[in-house]
Write a structure and sequence with these properties.
By secondary structure, the protein is mostly beta strands. The protein folds into two domains: 209 residues, no CATH class; 185 residues, Galactose-binding lectin (Jelly Rolls). It contains two helices and 27 strands. Strands 1, 2, 3, 6, 9, 12, 15, 16, 20, 23 and 26 form an eleven-stranded mixed beta sheet that branches. Strands 5-10-7-8 form a four-stranded antiparallel beta sheet, with no helix packed on it. It has a four-stranded antiparallel beta sheet with strand order 19-24-21-22. A hairpin with a 2-residue loop joins strand 21 and strand 22. It comes from Gossypium hirsutum. Pfam families: Malectin_like.
Length: 450
């Protein structure tokens, strides 16, 4: 076997997603090219063509020592017994996640259908004998994109007890072959790369990148087009005013939506949560898979006062040096909404007007019908510090008898790859949104070295 170790897999999902409850086949890739397929029942609105998962956590994979010929090892087939809990980042696993540690460049090759794909990289920074996180200096590339590159700054504010990070990327695959390569820094002695899980999941072709659609560039009169030649990195995905939505409750793409409270900067006297009193309906305006119904069934609203100056403000950390796609999810959830002009309010992004007369009923043509609005925000000027992308909604200028309070249901923010085809920022693990589910467990960590 060659020095370049390749692990290949291919999956095709059965055409069963027409039913509300359907079965989803998970393919787990083991280190001897074995595949284990197990089905679980999930609610879905989208049928992924490919679902491929490489998981370093398996009790059947023996402890591996580093060898000169990194492709010469053999690992017995893994027995996965509890697949339905795989995506739930909760304390259902009673051992710490295992690691795949690479001291030399290492490539995983996935055979997939052509089209856009989610790539999710799971990292759980660790403390392990003979390895220190200060030496975990590496880059990860996929296709011709640099997805991330770690540095000492990546770990400067890292708390090992609460640092589980999932990095999600979106790239377009043209030729049916996706290579994901981990490269330890050649400039640092004993540098190594690590990962806990890799997921490759197909996605709808026009979910986030719509080449023909002109998007407003915040603060400028010009427009912006996102091409398929761009890669995206998900920075934030929030269920505004709602609870955590786990991957298995997404619309078939296993996205996780987290609550917005930790990003909200206004106090409780200015905003509150409202729950829909209308049925959330599908429409021809946006596909049902754009967001789960739970996102649109709740919202954060701005309390009214006599001055109409009440507002809700969120601050979302982002890396400088990039453009960002900001997607706002809206749904008119009041059964009193019967007409255009029922609820008109203002939206500001990066202290610039994004919508001066936001009218959800006008956009959606009815109550209970989800809709979203996309914007491009320029943070391309490089700085040494992380920046905050500000989002603000404020009630309209009319009296409360004229306009109902502003609301927002959901939010997604994506980094766009730069002119060098890079998404690498200085704080690779600084924005992990998932708490470490193993922090209270005492089991040892078994790892794999390559």
């Amino acid at each position: 076997m060659s020095k370049k170790n390749q692990i290949m897999a291919r999956s095709r999902m059965p055409s069963m997603f027409g039913m509300l409850l359907s079965f989803c086949s998970f393919l787990f890739i083991t280190h001897n090219n074995s595949l284990v397929a197990i089905s679980v029942e999930v609610a879905s609105s989208y049928e992924p063509t490919d679902i491929l998962i490489l998981d370093c956590s398996s009790s059947d994979i023996p402890f591996l020592i580093e060898r000169d010929d990194i492709g010469s090892f053999h690992v017995p087939r893994t027995n996965f017994s509890v697949v339905s809990k795989y995506y739930a980042l909760a304390p259902v696993y009673r051992q710490k996640p295992q690691l795949c540690i690479h001291k030399k460049p290492f490539t995983y090759t996935f055979l997939v259908s052509s089209g856009p794909k989610f790539i999710r990289l799971h990292f759980n920074p660790f403390s392990f004998s003979g390895f220190h996180m200060s030496k975990a200096l590496f880059s990860v590339s996929a296709a011709h994109f640099t997805l991330l590159k770690t540095s000492n700054a990546s770990y400067s504010k890292l708390q090992l007890h609460d640092s589980y990070t999932v990095k999600e990327f979106c790239i377009n695959v043209d030729d049916g072959v996706l290579n994901v390569t981990f490269t330890p820094s050649p400039d640092v002695s004993d540098a190594f790369a690590f990962v806990n899980k890799i997921e490759v999941i197909s996605m709808p072709s026009n979910l986030y990148i719509q080449e023909a659609v002109s998007l407003p560039l915040i603060g400028q009169a010009s427009s912006y087009y996102i091409k398929n030649s761009k890669a995206l990195e998900m920075m934030h995905r929030l269920n505004i005013g709602g609870e955590f939505i786990p991957a298995l409750e997404d619309t078939g793409m296993f996205r996780e939506w987290i609550p917005d409270a930790s990003f909200l900067t206004t106090d409780g006297s200015n905003s509150g949560i409202v729950i829909s009193d209308v049925q959330i309906k599908q429409s021809s305006r946006i596909p049902a898979y754009v967001g789960p119904k739970q996102v649109y069934a709740t919202a954060r609203t701005v309390f009214a006062d006599g001055s109409n100056q009440s507002r809700a403000t969120w601050l979302l950390p982002v890396d400088s040096g990039f453009y960002y796609l900001v997607r706002l999810h809206f749904c008119e959830i009041s059964n009193e909404a019967k007409r255009v002009g029922y609820r008109v309010f203002h939206v500001y992004i990066k202290d610039q007007t994004a919508e001066d007369q936001a009218d959800i009923f006008l956009w959606s043509h009815g109550a209970g019908i989800p809709v979203y609005r996309d914007y491009i925000v320029n943070f391309s000027e490089h700085t040494k510090r992380r920046k905050n992308l500000s989002l603000l909604i404020r009630n309209g200028n009319g009296s409360i008898r004229t306009f109902k309070p502003a609301i927002l249901n959901g939010l997604e923010i994506f980094k766009l790859s730069d002119s060098n085809n890079s998404l690498a920022g200085p704080f690779s693990f600084g924005m992990g949104k998932y708490s470490n589910p193993w922090r209270k467990e005492g089991a040892s960590c078994r790892n794999h070295f390559f």
